[in-house]
Design goal:
globular, nine-stranded mixed sheet, 415 residues
């Protein structure tokens, strides 16, 4: 039976996986049935000789056979037209046409998610920090996404699985290409208790492409956390994707500012990345962005504010015990907040109502949104309810006209 997955897979076989060609030829809003029909009739302009040859030789029956083989291997396939497709991925510049996965894809729909990246050969300092932060984020129901590349990536997946949290591995190859026995074992664990996912079809023997893979791990998340990175780290590419997609960049401060292993983190902090000393530095940021309508609330989250300073400082173990005693609130109930009685209350900043923006032009609405603190493009789109592409184009024009200024980390402010 010919399904949407069959048609999309045929297009992948013709134009290649992880390829921008289909979006270039058909446009962002293409209808797959009409696109396949036009391609088969040679009505699409700009096809290369190689692509024309593929159209002649590749049949829909081949795509159907590959999907049957995936089902036999325990792989599930979902196309971009399905409601189950991760909605965050649809907003990136070149979303994958198909996703091949094992496990629970609903992990990409519930609550917040953070993409975590780091060195393959990490320091002891990074290992301790990674395990501590990951456990705290897992306690707050945050899904942790990695590139399944060993080192910090493997440490994140294993730590969260042991802790009973939610974690996802995004592969740079097809699902059955995991090399070492350790990777295959971890892949099996993720398939049962998490999610392992890729855009690569098992029928296409493509080389590992971590740079292209990074756009997916960032696209599935609400922000990126750097645990350890040198200036030569390929993981720094995640920062470029985050800025392009309008998502915040978090970074663990270097363990030693003179150690080359942490020079990438120094550079990220210079560019405006948000330093992270505990999980609350991430959760608080995501909670604040959720208030503007950019992200869905995390649900069962207990926000804690620091208590007043005391002369006898509690140990880390005591603090963890105290935190674990906090009650878990049911979903949809307003999270409890432990307030500092000595801290003066700050007046709440009024948030402009959505209907007010509808009476303004796109440029005026963006300027109105920037009257407060600096915002990134995704935040502006959430506040004004404008399309992200409209926001980006208007910001460029406003920057040329001298009305807004672009800051480090992809933030904009009104001049």
């Amino acid at each position: 039976m010919i399904t949407y997955e069959t048609l999309w897979l045929w297009a992948v076989l013709v134009f290649g996986a992880s390829s921008k060609r289909i979006w270039e030829l058909g446009g962002k809003r293409l209808h797959i049935e009409e696109f396949v029909r036009r391609v088969a009739r040679n009505e699409v302009e700009g096809l290369t000789p190689h692509e024309i040859e593929n159209v002649k030789n590749i049949k829909l029956s081949q795509a159907e056979k590959i999907l049957e083989e995936c089902e036999d291997r325990g792989q599930k396939v979902i196309c971009i037209d399905r409601v189950e497709y991760p909605i965050k991925l649809k907003d990136i510049p070149d979303p994958p046409l198909l996703l091949f996965y094992r496990g629970n894809i609903d992990l990409l729909k519930c609550g917040s998610a953070i993409a975590v990246t780091g060195a393959r050969k990490h320091s002891d300092y990074s290992k301790r920090v990674c395990e501590d932060i990951c456990c705290e984020l897992a306690d707050q129901r945050v899904t942790l996404i990695t590139g399944f590349a060993g080192g910090i990536d493997r440490l994140v997946n294993e730590t969260v699985l042991r802790h009973g949290g939610k974690t996802v591995g995004v592969l740079a190859t097809h699902l059955d290409a995991a090399g070492s026995s350790i990777d295959r074992e971890l892949c099996e664990k993720l398939s049962k208790n998490g999610l392992v996912i890729t855009e690569h079809c098992p029928a296409l023997k493509l080389p590992n492409n971590a740079v292209r893979r990074n756009r997916l791990s960032v696209g599935m998340s609400d922000g990126v956390l750097f645990i350890e990175a040198s200036m030569k780290s390929h993981g720094l590419n995640n920062q470029e994707h985050a800025v392009r997609q309008g998502k915040p960049v978090f970074v663990i401060p270097p363990g030693d500012i003179l150690d080359e292993r942490y020079f990438g983190q120094r550079e990220l902090m210079r560019k405006g990345a948000i330093p992270v000393f505990e999980a609350e530095d991430i959760i608080g940021r995501l909670d604040r962005r959720a208030e503007y309508g950019v992200f869905q609330p995390m649900g069962e989250v207990i926000r804690r504010e620091k208590e007043p300073a005391k002369t006898n400082r509690r140990s880390k173990a005591q603090s963890r015990v105290q935190r674990d005693r906090l009650p878990v609130l049911p979903q949809r109930i307003k999270p409890a907040v432990i307030k500092d009685p000595l801290k003066p209350k700050k007046p709440k900043k009024p948030i402009m109502q959505v209907e007010d923006y509808t009476k303004l032009t796109a440029a005026d609405a963006i300027c109105k949104a920037l009257e407060g603190e600096p915002l990134i493009a995704n935040d502006i789109a959430g506040v004004t309810k404008l399309d992200i592409m409209t926001v980006l184009s208007e910001l460029t024009l406003l920057e040329i006209r001298g009305r807004v200024e672009k800051l480090a980390g992809g933030y904009y402010r009104l001049i």
